[in-house]
Specification:
Layout lengths: L2 E4 L4 E4 L2 E2 L7 E3 L12 E5 L3 E6 L4 E6 L4 E5 L16 E4 L2 E8 L5 E10 L2 E6 L18 E2 L2 H10 L5 E5 L5 E5 L11 H17 L10 E2 L30 E3 L4 H10 L17
Parallel strand pairs: 5-15, 5-16, 6-14, 12-13
Antiparallel strand pairs: 1-2, 2-3, 4-17, 6-7, 7-8, 9-14, 10-11, 11-12
Length: 282
């Protein structure tokens, strides 16, 4: 029996039968060269919506389970005005809702479509339209997130208590995704989550996120308190992440988008096919 192995061409000949990489329809995983700066840790919700607020752009987005999204301008807190505080970054959930509330702190100011998520901080509209000119342009509130009456009415009708709210300045190391029935999730108490999330972010910073069996985390109104959860710092995320040897070579028929979704969703933990002639076995 003749045996010939040529590394440069990755061709394996046995009994004159060609079994090259092309024959086996394998290719180098394109995500070996992928820029993972956009990689984020993920927490999941079983609610039908979640809200993301960017304090830098003064814009918010209501994401829906059906794939649609509703973008709306906001005006967040400003610590430089009298009695004002800056709206704090964090991962929160809606804790309370009311169509009309009166602010005791600010001379019984009427707050319409109240959606609270951080103790006395929440989304709301105001009577009149003088503040509309600042929406999406400047943070002028005393700490809450101001929204137009029209947008506040719409968002109020969509969400429920427990709806996640991610408040950031563009450097969050975590994102929110919709959970699905049939998937397996881990559920922790608030104190456990507060300690665990920074450790998960550190795996991303150190490049070990894709090869760590950390599981999917579920959040709701029971395990996220008014104080919220840390969101990390995406500036610390490197371009490259370490990958398992068995993921270096993949079926050439696998779409790149599908492969990336597998990696990000954690499904890369199952036994993947790889070319035994080109890859070292684990």
């Amino acid at each position: 029996m003749s045996l010939f192995f040529l590394f440069n061409s990755a061709t394996f000949l046995e009994n004159n039968i060609e079994t090259s990489a092309e024959y086996f329809k394998y290719k180098i995983n394109p995500f070996v060269r992928y820029n993972f700066k956009e990689l984020r840790d993920t927490v999941y919700t079983m609610k039908d919506h979640f809200i993301e607020v960017n304090l830098t752009t003064q814009q918010a987005v209501l994401y829906s389970r059906d794939g649609s999204k509703f973008e709306f301008p906001v005006s967040s807190g400003n610590k430089n005005i009298e009695e004002g505080i800056e709206t704090r970054e964090g991962l929160f959930v809606i804790k309370s809702k009311a169509k009309k509330l009166y602010s005791v702190q600010f001379d019984s100011t009427v707050m319409l479509y109240w959606m609270g998520f951080n103790a006395g901080i929440g989304f709301h509209a105001l009577l009149g339209k003088n503040y509309y000119k600042y929406l999406g342009k400047k943070n002028v509130s005393h700490g809450c997130i101001r929204v137009s009456r029209e947008d506040a009415d719409f968002v109020y009708k969509q969400i429920e208590n427990g709806t996640p709210v991610l408040v950031h300045k563009g450097n969050n190391a975590v994102k929110i995704a919709f959970g699905r029935l049939g998937e397996v999730y881990k559920y922790f108490s608030y104190s456990e989550l507060y300690r665990l999330l920074p450790k998960r972010y550190q795996l991303v910073y150190d490049g070990y996120y894709l090869i760590s069996s950390i599981g999917k985390i579920l959040i709701d109104e029971e395990n996220v308190s008014h104080n919220g959860l840390p969101i990390g710092n995406s500036k610390l995320i490197p371009v490259k992440q370490k990958m398992r040897p068995s993921t270096l070579w993949i079926d050439a028929t696998t779409p790149e988008e599908k492969r990336l979704n597998e990696i990000f969703s954690g499904r890369e933990t199952y036994t993947l096919a790889y070319n035994p002639y080109l890859d070292a076995k684990n």
